[in-house]
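Lab meeting, item 3. Inverse folding demo.
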C-alpha cells in the first residue's frame, strides 16, 4: 500500500532526459531546448494589479474572513505576522544558494532517479511541455539527509538541520491555516479533520533556483500549472518572477515584501471547497540581471484520505477520490486532472 508522497510518485516514473538540468553557468545564449515563444508580457510589472493580491496579517481579528475572500477571489495571498522567524526563512535561502552554487557534477551526485521523488533535478512538470524550463530544483520529502549527504558527505549537518526545522515550522503554520479554512467551509465533522496534525501527511519542501537568463523573454522559469496540494506556502527571495493568473487581469506579478510568506491554494482545496476556492494557476518568469530563489512547502492530506466536496448546500462538482488516486490522474494529465473528475460532465 502506498503511504507516502515519494512512493506515489514512484508509480509514475519520468524519462531521464526530463530530469537532468542544464549547466546554466556555462551558457551565454538560450539553446533551442529552452527557447519558448517570445513572451509579450513577461516584463510587464503591472504594479497596479499586483498590489491587489491581498496582504493579510495573521494576527488581525478578521484574518479568517480575509483569507476566505483571498482564496475565493485569488486563490492566493501574502501573509504577515505568521510566526515564522525571518532568520528561519533566510537560513533556508542561504542554504539554497550554497547548494545551487556548487559545480554541476557535484549536484548531479544527488540527481533524482526516473522513479524517484527527491533530490536534484528539473521540475516534475517538465514532460508536459515541449520546451524545458530555466530552473534547477531540489526536492525534500521526509529527511533531507539521504540526498544531502550524497553532495556534502560528512558536511551536510547544517543543511539537514535548517531544512528539518523549516519543514517543522511550515507544517505548524499549514495546520493553523487549514483549521481556519475548514472553519470557513463549515459542516466539517471531526472525523473529516482528524488527519490534520498526523505524521503521514503528503508534504514536501521544494528548493528552486532560477539563474540569470541572457534572453528572459524567450525563456520560462516555471511553466503555468496548479499545485496538487491543499496549500502551498512559499518563501521567495526579493526578486520578482512569480505570477498568478487572474481572470480579466491576466498574469499578475507577486511582488515580494520582506518578512511575508506567499500562500496559494491547490487542486485538493479546490475540490474540498466544491470549487468555491480557486486553485491558483501560476508561473515563474526569469530576468537577465538577478538570480531568484524560493522555497515552497507543499501540504496535503495523507495518501489514503478520501477527498470529497465539503460544501453541503449545493450539488458536488467533483467525485470523491483518494489523494493517491488524484496524484495518479494528475501525473498523466497535468492540466486536465480536475476536468476528469468533474461531475458536471456526467449528466
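The presenter then showed the designed sequence:
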Amino acid at each position: 500500500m502506498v503511504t507516502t508522497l515519494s512512493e506515489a510518485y514512484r508509480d509514475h516514473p519520468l524519462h531521464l532526459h526530463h530530469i537532468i538540468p542544464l549547466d546554466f553557468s556555462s551558457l551565454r545564449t538560450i539553446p533551442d531546448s529552452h527557447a519558448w515563444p517570445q513572451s509579450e508580457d513577461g516584463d510587464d510589472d503591472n504594479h497596479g494589479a499586483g498590489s491587489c493580491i491581498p496582504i493579510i496579517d495573521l494576527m488581525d481579528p478578521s484574518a479568517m474572513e480575509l483569507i476566505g475572500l483571498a482564496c475565493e477571489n485569488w486563490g492566493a495571498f501574502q501573509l504577515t505576522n505568521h510566526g515564522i522567524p525571518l532568520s528561519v526563512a533566510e537560513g533556508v535561502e542561504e542554504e539554497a544558494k550554497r547548494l545551487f552554487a556548487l559545480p554541476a557534477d557535484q549536484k548531479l551526485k544527488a540527481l533524482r532517479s526516473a522513479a524517484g521523488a527527491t533530490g536534484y533535478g528539473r521540475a516534475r512538470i517538465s514532460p508536459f511541455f515541449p520546451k524545458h524550463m530555466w530552473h534547477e530544483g531540489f526536492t525534500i520529502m521526509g529527511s533531507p539527509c539521504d540526498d544531502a549527504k550524497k553532495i556534502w558527505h560528512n558536511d551536510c549537518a547544517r543543511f539537514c538541520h535548517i531544512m528539518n526545522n523549516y519543514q517543522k515550522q511550515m507544517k505548524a503554520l499549514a495546520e493553523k491555516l487549514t483549521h481556519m479554512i475548514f472553519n470557513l467551509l463549515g459542516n466539517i465533522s471531526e472525523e473529516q479533520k482528524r488527519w490534520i496534525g498526523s505524521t503521514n501527511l503528503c508534504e514536501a519542501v521544494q528548493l528552486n533556483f532560477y539563474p540569470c537568463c541572457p534572453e528572459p523573454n524567450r525563456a520560462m522559469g516555471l511553466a503555468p500549472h496548479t499545485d496538487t496540494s491543499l496549500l502551498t506556502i512559499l518563501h521567495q527571495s526579493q526578486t520578482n518572477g512569480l505570477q498568478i493568473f487572474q481572470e480579466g487581469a491576466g498574469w499578475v506579478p507577486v511582488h515580494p515584501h520582506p518578512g511575508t510568506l506567499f500562500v496559494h491554494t491547490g487542486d485538493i482545496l479546490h475540490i474540498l471547497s466544491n470549487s468555491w476556492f480557486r486553485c491558483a494557476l501560476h508561473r515563474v518568469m526569469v530576468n537577465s540581471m538577478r538570480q531568484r530563489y524560493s522555497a515552497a512547502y507543499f501540504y496535503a492530506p495523507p495518501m489514503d484520505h478520501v477527498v470529497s466536496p465539503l460544501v453541503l448546500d449545493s450539488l458536488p462538482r467533483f467525485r470523491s477520490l483518494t489523494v493517491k488516486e488524484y496524484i495518479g490522474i494528475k501525473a498523466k494529465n497535468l492540466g486536465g486532472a480536475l476536468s476528469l473528475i468533474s461531475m458536471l460532465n456526467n449528466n
